[in-house]
Amino acid sequence: MIKILFVCHGNICRSVGAQYIFDDMIEKRHLGNVIMCDSAATSREEIGNPIYPPMRQALMGHGISIGDHRAVQLRRSDYEEYDLIIGMDSENMYYMKRILGDDPEGKIHTLMEYTDSPNELIDDPWYTRDFETAYRLIKKGCEALLEYLLAKRA
Question: What is the CATH code for 2-153?
Answer without folding.
Answer: 3.40.50.2300
